[in-house]
């Protein structure tokens, strides 16, 4: 899917990258999601219903964000997780952009937009949280 190598071994200060540098690093679709908070079409990404074991890393910076063991079938059209792999890996921010209060989820390392988190929807998961994440913001590393 991507020939972009996240683990090129060079240290990068992701917070210092310019918009143009991000544009060059990422595929166009992932760039729009991560850097401009676009939302991919529902049910469009291969990760939506994937059950492959592994970890999902940030497509922007390679940080581990979610694990397949915290992924569940929400039927909402986007990859859904009930908990981040490490709570410090993501940051959450209030987002009123659609006139409804939502909580945006961003990568703590590179600031990339990942998706939103919703609570109290009644899913039978340990947290009753749904991290609704764009597949384009993620890269699955199989176990
Ligand atoms: Zn990142």
TrEMBL record:
Coiled coil: none annotated. The keyword Signal does not apply. GO terms for biological process: protein repair; response to oxidative stress. Its EC number is 1.8.4.12. Residues 19-143 form the MsrB domain. Pfam families: SelR (PF01641). InterPro entries: Met_Sox_Rdtase_MsrB (IPR028427), Met_Sox_Rdtase_MsrB_dom (IPR002579), Mss4-like_sf (IPR011057). GO terms for molecular function: peptide-methionine (R)-S-oxide reductase activity. It catalyses: L-methionyl-[protein] + [thioredoxin]-disulfide + H2O = L-methionyl-(R)-S-oxide-[protein] + [thioredoxin]-dithiol. SUPFAM superfamilies: Mss4-like. Keywords: Oxidoreductase. One of its GO terms (cellular component) is cytoplasm. It is an enzyme of class 1 (oxidoreductase). The keyword Plastid does not apply. This is peptide-methionine (R)-S-oxide reductase. It comes from Corynebacterium variabile.
